[in-house]
Design brief:
By secondary structure, the chain is mainly beta. About 15% of the residues lie in helices and about 45% in strands.
Length: about 350
């Protein structure tokens, strides 16, 4: 066929041919579009900061990303091959900002084609505030009860304080950090556990580890009881001496294990030792306490008592130096009768 005839036939009815070609292209495009599918994944949202500021408003820590492409392509992409972030490092002042979500591809997502990625939402509103750091104490959180008859007498937390950081206003309001629940149910021996720390707000961060070591001391429970009017016993007084006045009574505060209270006689627990007294006089002596087995004496009173010692059938009184102290300063001694010797701090009363 001659070139002239070929050209004439090629360009004959060209509007119809152009329309036909456009229709074919549209059909091809539509077919390709119908072959593309969508898949939605949730991935962590990272926040890049400059160290001077901290987020002061809540923001999503996970974000949805829509993947659009051929089925085999989009389902061949793992969630860790797409990352989402907010870049706040360039902001130099406190305030509220709208920041676009930035997506990056890795691995299979980098080579996939065709592939369209779209974050939802496209932008996030976030506040920035000056960053503050400080130490706060750790407070344990308990659940349940120890075995019947046992009590938690003491515990330790290591460390007892932790470093927190975050927006200045929130950090200033935070007085302590609580631990995760520490289970006490049924325990009757000492125990230790590594327990996680709980943030009161997601905007707070821990500078070090996010856990502490909790160590507990568990003992048998004791009933605390106070006894009043307890008789103070006397021992060691020489046979030729006697008390001129009745001893006062005392008070005791005891920790008593279950089952031992019925066998306890408080009148036998307080006593004074008068064996060092060898002559009449007025003395201040220590009160001793006997601690029965398994019972803890928390406190008792009096710690000392003043006693007046006399000869049996005599009015002679005196004082002894040493570990047993006089109750008052000695008074001037009267003139001793003829033939009787006076020595030391001893005094002799005139007989009627």
């Amino acid at each position: 066929m001659k070139p002239e005839k070929l050209a004439a036939r090629l360009f004959a009815d060209w509007p119809a041919k152009v329309l036909s070609l456009a229709a074919a292209l549209l059909l091809t495009l539509f077919f390709n579009l119908t072959r593309l599918e969508q898949r939605t994944i949730s991935i962590p949202l990272a926040v890049a900061l400059n160290g001077q500021f901290s987020p002061s408003s809540q923001y999503p820590h996970m974000i949805k990303v829509v993947l659009k492409g051929e089925r085999d392509v989009i389902y061949g992409i793992r969630e860790d091959e797409v990352s989402a972030s907010l870049d706040l490092a360039g902001f130099k002042g406190e305030g509220i900002y709208r920041v676009p979500v930035k997506l990056e591809r890795r691995g299979n997502a980098l080579a996939a084609d065709p592939l369209e990625l779209r974050p939802e939402p496209l932008e996030i509103t976030i506040g920035l505030e000056r960053r503050l750091s400080r130490k706060v104490p750790v407070t344990p959180s308990f659940k349940g009860f120890l075995e019947s008859g046992y009590e938690l007498t003491s515990f330790d937390l290591v460390p007892a304080e932790v470093d927190i950081s975050g927006p200045a206003g929130l950090v200033a309001q935070t007085t302590d950090i609580s631990t995760d629940i520490i289970e006490l149910e049924g325990k009757k021996t000492d125990f230790s556990v590594d327990v996680r720390l709980i943030k009161k707000d997601n905007l707070l961060e821990f500078a070090g580890k996010d856990s502490v070591i909790f160590s507990a001391r568990v003992t048998r429970s004791l009933n605390v009881k106070t006894f009043t009017g307890v008789r103070i016993g006397m021992k060691g007084l020489a046979g030729f001496l006697s008390l001129a006045e009745t001893l006062p009574t005392g008070n005791l505060r005891l920790h008593i294990p279950d089952g031992k209270e019925s066998n306890l006689d408080p009148d036998g627990l307080l006593s004074v030792d008068l064996s060092a007294l060898t002559r009449p006089g007025i003395y201040t002596v220590d009160v001793a306490v006997r601690q029965p087995e398994g019972i803890i004496v928390e406190t008792y009173e009096p710690q000392t008592v003043t006693v007046r010692i006399q000869n049996i059938g005599s009015g002679t009184v005196g004082r002894l130096p040493g570990s047993i102290h006089p109750a008052s300063a000695p008074s001037p001694a009267p003139q001793a009768p003829a033939g009787e010797q006076q020595g030391g701090t001893e005094t002799t009363e005139a007989k009627p």
